[in-house]
Design a protein that fits this description.
With 496 residues, this protein is mainly alpha-helical. The chain is built from 17 helices and no strands. The chain starts with a helix and ends in a 16-residue tail after the last helix.
């Protein structure tokens, strides 16, 4: 099984090109003089991180698979690739059209095809292995070339028939199309295209086979792999330490504010802070993280998922704000309209699609939402024979909805605090899967979405605690109890 894991990681880790500098976080210089490491040690740490990220993704993402993605249309890289490929196939065609034909490039292609076909075979498939080696023997083909007796069409047909025996059923139509191709150069080019698809299929089959094993052993695997990274690169916890330190400072500030507001409190006493609260507060900060900043090393494997949850929560917050403003201003007029809050949600969602993109104009979208809500309210009032909203009321409603985007907007701040409270309550539960915390006021319109996002978030957090608990325990001990002797890392994370 270890060999199969190695195959999957080594052959497909290049597909994980994270778009941020986070993949290099373990190699950030620490504040103290760093330990000198060799280039080999550095590359080993990078390889460990790539393996760790890939294995984690395979295990936790049931939809993860390898996809055959081309370069964007008209991109420089795509143009270069197209020109290079065309030049190669044009050269091959001119060589085969010579008199007598020149076969050396074609023979090299057959050698490559042979190796690819052999890579698809399972152990023990000796008969077909021997047959492939005999038919596509490069020395034999060269001997035939010397006598101008190479049957390229015959070799291509053998290759296609062999591919048909080895491919997944989804590729049957591709094999059928190969058999209908007459031009030998185009045929060879299409054979390589279908072989690439078959390699992708094989990789995805390997991933699917590995997933149950990885899920069963993921906690131990990730912890051991990160320990390897830490031993090779001692600064691999610098950003995690900084993340926890900021959380401690937040908790100290909160406790100090409480003590100062409590009459008779002893301001000289040292505040006692719960490690669990510190850690949970740190996880909550990830929901408001500026993803242009570097990310804590121990959370890199879930960075993309956490960013997606943050973006979804931002969208839900806007919807809750829109509904609260609308209810406060025209609630009496729509009080007896069934499911009106859901109708507001259906109006808002399409207009907020892509709101986290840089090019998205949120204020313009909010203005459009306000206009549509006014139209919806007026239509509902007209249907019931009631007077519609006057111009001032409509302008005020649209204006207040548009102002949600402004910094320190009171409605936005209120909803944000209630979302944070719900998420904090979720992390405090011993088992969120059995019982969800009560939904704070103003969030009922997005309750089902909040519970879904919350479940995903809590799953990520709880798994992260299980894996990195010993590392967090050591960091918390050093920061909260610096006078205590430093010992071996705890084997369990702080729990609720």
């Amino acid at each position: 099984m270890k060999q199969r894991i190695s195959f999957c990681v080594e052959h497909h880790q290049q597909l994980y090109l994270w778009g941020s500098p986070c993949a290099l976080l373990p190699f950030r210089k620490s504040a103290s003089p760093p330990k000198m490491i060799t280039f080999d040690e550095l590359m080993a740490a990078a390889r460990n991180l790539s393996n760790l990220t890939l294995v984690h993704e395979i295990a936790v993402n049931a939809n993860f698979c390898i996809k055959n993605e081309d370069f964007p249309q008209n991109s420089f890289a795509g143009t270069v690739k197209e020109i290079a490929h065309k030049a190669f196939w044009d050269l091959l065609e001119s060589e085969l059209n010579e008199d007598p034909p020149e076969y050396e490039h074609a023979i090299k292609l057959f050698e490559e095809i042979k190796e690819i076909l052999l890579s698809f075979l399972t152990p023990g498939a000796n008969r077909i292995q021997n047959q492939i080696c005999e038919v596509l023997d490069a020395d034999l083909i060269r001997q035939q070339a010397e006598h101008n007796a190479v049957d390229i069409h015959g070799l291509a047909n053998y290759i296609i028939n062999t591919m048909g025996k080895l491919c997944a059923p989804v590729r049957d139509n591709d094999i059928k199309q190969l058999k209908a191709t007459d031009n030998v150069v185009e045929l060879l080019r299409q054979i390589f295209r279908v072989l690439d698809l078959m390699k992708m299929d094989m990789a995805n089959y390997t991933i699917q086979s590995l997933r149950p094993y990885l899920q069963h052993n993921l906690v131990d695997y990730e912890r051991a792999k990160f320990q390897e990274i830490l031993e090779e690169t001692p600064s691999a916890l610098d950003l995690t330490t900084e993340w926890i330190k900021e959380s401690i400072e937040d908790e100290l500030s909160s406790v100090s504010d409480e003590l100062s507001s409590s009459p008779g409190a002893d301001s000289s006493s040292k505040p006692i802070i719960s490690p669990t609260l510190v850690l949970n507060n740190g996880y909550l900060k990830l929901l408001q993280w500026d993803y242009r900043k570097t990310f804590p090393e121990t959370l890199i494997t879930d960075e993309v998922r956490l960013q997606e949850l943050r973006e979804k929560l931002n969208q839900l917050k806007i919807i809750a704000c829109v509904c609260l403003i609308t209810n406060n201003m025209v609630g009496a007029a729509i009080a007896d309209v069934p499911d009106f809050a859901d109708q507001l949600k259906r109006i808002s969602l399409p207009l907020l699609e892509g709101m986290n993109k840089k090019t998205f104009d949120l204020k313009e979208a909010l203005n459009a939402i306000g206009v549509q809500i006014c139209s919806k309210v007026n239509r509902s009032l007209t249907e019931r024979g009631l007077p519609t909203l006057d111009a001032d009321m409509q302008s005020n409603l649209i204006g207040q909805i548009s102002h949600i985007v402004e910094e320190n907007n009171p409605i936005s701040s209120l909803i944000d605090k209630r979302i944070q409270f719900f998420m904090r309550s979720l992390l405090a539960l011993p088992n969120f899967q059995k019982c969800m915390p009560a939904m704070p006021g103003g969030l009922s319109v997005i309750q089902s979405e909040m519970e879904f996002v919350g479940s995903q978030y809590a799953s990520i957090v709880n798994f992260n605690k299980r894996v990195y608990g010993p590392f967090y325990a050591n960091i918390l001990r050093k920061l909260l109890f610096p006078e205590a002797p430093v010992g071996k890392a705890e084997t369990e994370t702080p729990t609720n």
